[in-house]
Design brief:
This protein is α/β, with parallel strands linked by helices and 484 residues long. The chain is built from 16 helices and 21 strands. It has a 6-stranded parallel sheet with strand order 3-2-4-5-6-7, sandwiched between helices. Strands 17-18-19-21-20 form a 5-stranded mixed barrel. α14 runs parallel beside α15. The chain starts with 8 loop residues before the first helix and ends with a helix. The relative contact order is 0.09. The protein binds iron/sulfur cluster. Iron/sulfur cluster binds next to α8.
Amino acid sequence: MSEFRLPDEKQARIRSSSFRTEIVRDPVVLSEEQKILGNGLNYFVSTYGCQANVRDGEVICGILEQMGFKAVEDMALADLIILNTCAIRENAENKVVGELGFLQAYKRRNPRLIIGVCGCMAQEPQMARRIVEKHPVVDLMFGTHNIHRLPALLQNIIVNDQRSIEVLSQQGSIFEGMPTIRSSRHKAFVNIMDGCDKFCTYCIVPYTRGQQRSRLKEDVLKECRQLIDAGYKEITLIGQNVNAYGKDLKMGYDFAGLLNEVADLGIARLRFTTSHPWDFTDEMINAIASRENIMPFIHLPLQSGNDEILKRMGRRYTREQYLDLYDRIVSRVSDVAVSTDIIVGFPNETRQQFEDTLSVVDYCKYDNAYSFIFSPRESTPAARMEDNVSLQEKKERLAELNGRLGEYSKMRNKQCEGKVYDVLVDGVSKTDSSVMSGYTRQQKLVNFRSEKARVGDIINVRITEGMKNSLNGIDVSEKRAENE
Ligand code: SF4
């Protein structure tokens, strides 16, 4: 184990106000040997979790293609399989551990198969050690801070026939100019920052992704311009907490400013995620309300509707402040859709505290929501909290909450019936190949029939039916054009 570098919990906790983010430009410079290391070999990258992980997955694919590896759709045909993991909840981890068990059979069939694990699970000290010790099938492990080291780590495995285990726990740098293979040709994620300093008591992200650090505005704008020049129709600015963008740079710019400057570039659709209610400013609301190409959709995690629970979660806002923010958003941004995240069964959550969450849901009647049972994450304060709520009780609360959330999302979608919405066409519907699908400006999924629509088009769809999680409709673009 001695030559392996595993994550360190103490290191991962370090935060300092004097910390200055190092910007590393073009960190992936391949040697002649690394450029051909993947020739004739296939790769398969499986990404779990959030948009930041999807973006990292695109970079990993970019590096592998520069090394000569070729992508395959079927994992069974791969010579290199990388699991790009998520550690936000236990079930995400169980999926990966299950996958590693399953991959043993592949390894028996192809002993030269390389199996790698990266992402947030690799950054968790206990989990990383468990994987290395209990899953000898894993040849490669790296983290969220050293993706650029992939060529050297693979070289060590292929040339020296050794395991490469290198996960760094650090505050983190910003890497500019990383190779990338985008997973879509018409919509793209653009990282504006990484890491988080909020330390919500249940969350593992500050330990797995490091100190909150923003990219320079010029680098973000340059990437957005390149995407627009390449014909992209939609850009989503991503970060663990985009509202705090620029604070760490102390260069006098903030997220509202960035939103306006990216909107000025002329992208058809601009989105952003994830927001923290604590940092949501009026300037941001004004930008969203006043710019036609900033989409009227906001993901506003609530987590709990009870002040005592919010305090123990370390969320830094009260129920009243959250509702006041919600009111300001819906009163100023026309046709806005709001979604949220909610945790039920936080340690010692009482029935009354849960009902406080239900009453916020009744007030906001969210268009969409993600709801979860509290999942204790090792090294987080909440994992050490006393908890007298049974799993059965938590499951019943989740079912009750989901019932309520489903009613409201269906009600909101029913209100769309008969209206015409702009839809960015994503492709063939996942549920019916004779139908196409895409999203409205409000990030509502629409399945619709169309003769002419192509991927990447923005078309007019009249909604014929609103369901709990999606809409059905018909393409009326031509009729619309005739009438105009
Ligand atoms: S804001 Fe809280 S929940 Fe969100 S990533 Fe940061 S610590 Fe986690």
